[in-house]
Each structure stands twice: as structure tokens, then as C-alpha cells.
Amino acid sequence: MSTMAQTTAAHSERHPIGLIVEDDLRRNRLTVFFRLLLAIPQLVWLYFFGIFAAFAVFLAWVAAVFLGRVPGGLHDFIARYQRATTHVTAYVLLLADPWPPFAGSPGSYPIDLRVDPAAPQSRLTVFFRVFLALPALLLAYVFRTVNTLVAFLGWFYCLIFGRMHEGMRDISAWMFAFEMQTYAYLFLLTGRYPSFAGAPRA
């Protein structure tokens, strides 16, 4: 295989973290109207879940610095937290309509997160992970700000038409996918930097 072909194949390789979109765009006007209130129990649950997840990320960081990979059990626990965060955030941003489950199980919500199994990571990049993630975190913050505006506009659209505009959903999902890849990188679920490539789809 030529060098150019190898480079093309490397760039086309899928990211270990991917957003899965299986939403049908239909929205219940009543639950849309009270969306933030309905999300409160989930947000409280995520707060306490996040405390344990933060401890797990620290343990994963120590393990990866010494072993060059995150142990499978820690990886799965952090992935479950990240997936639960994906479900709840998608609900708040009107990317999906059903009330999200608490468990963060794969395949349990129309907007889901695909997390590949734990793989070896560079000890050096693990050690400096927080600093390396800063540019992506800044962009993810910008994307979240824009997504909040899109959700605000989408809220009115859903109340009027009983469905989410497909274009608004798609651009919101694209930005959200980058954000989730960023936090997956920060949380050591992958050693691959977040990517703009590809559309979030099943």
C-alpha cells in the first residue's frame, strides 16, 4: 500500500468514541414545555454519579501512567457515566424526546454513545492529558454555548410543530459529538484526540 493510501486509510478510520443518532424528530409538546423541570432528577443523579466517576478517572489516570492502559473495569464504569451524561444532555438539548434511563446502558436511548473497549495509550500523553485537552475543551465550551442557543430556538419550534427541525438536530448533534469525544479523551476513555470528521449516525 502506498504512503498516500495509508494516510487516507488512517484518516478514514472511525473514532473510538461515536455519537449514535436514532431519533425520529417527533417531540411531545407538553414534555418539551417542562423539559428543564423534568430533567432535574436526572441532573441530581448525574451530580452524585459524577463524584464517583471523578474518583474513577483519577484511578484510571494513575493506572494508565504506570501500565499504559486503563483497566477494563474502570474503563467500563467511566464509559457508563459518560453515556449517562450523553443521554441526559441530549434530553435537555431536545436532541431526543424520551425521558432518559438512569443506568447509562448502551443502546438504551435514541441518542447514544459508542465507546470502544479499552486500548493501550501513551503514558506521556496520559500524564499531560489535562493540558493536551485544553484546546478541545475550549472549543467544546463554544459548541455547548451555540448548542444552548440552538436548543432555545428548537424549544419554540417543537412547541409549534411538535417535532424538531432536522437541520437544527443535525448541527446540534455534530457539535455534541465533538463535545462528548472531548470529555472521553479527558476521561481517558480513548487516547485519540476529538475529531470533526464524520456525521453522528448509527
Task: Write a structural description.
With 202 residues, this protein is mainly alpha-helical. The protein has one domain (16-186). 63% of the residues lie in helices and 5% in strands. It has seven helices and two strands. The protein has helices spanning 3-12, 29-33, 35-67, 72-92, 123-127, 129-161, 166-186; strands at residues 17-21, 111-115. The longest helix is centred in the first third of the chain and has 33 residues, at 35-67. The radius of gyration is 18 Å and the shape is elongated. Residues 1-11 have low confidence and may be disordered.
End-to-end separation in angstroms reads 30 Å
Residues in helices, as a percent range = 55-70%
The strand line-up of the biggest sheet is 1-2
The overall average pLDDT, rounded, is 92
Helix-strand blueprint:
Blueprint: H1 3-12, E1 17-21, H2 29-33, H3 35-67, H4 72-92, E2 111-115, H5 123-127, H6 129-161, H7 166-186
Provide a brief overview of the structure.
The chain is mainly alpha-helical and 202 residues long.
Question: Which terms summarize this structure?
Answer:
202 residues, mainly alpha, two-stranded antiparallel sheet, 5% strand, elongated
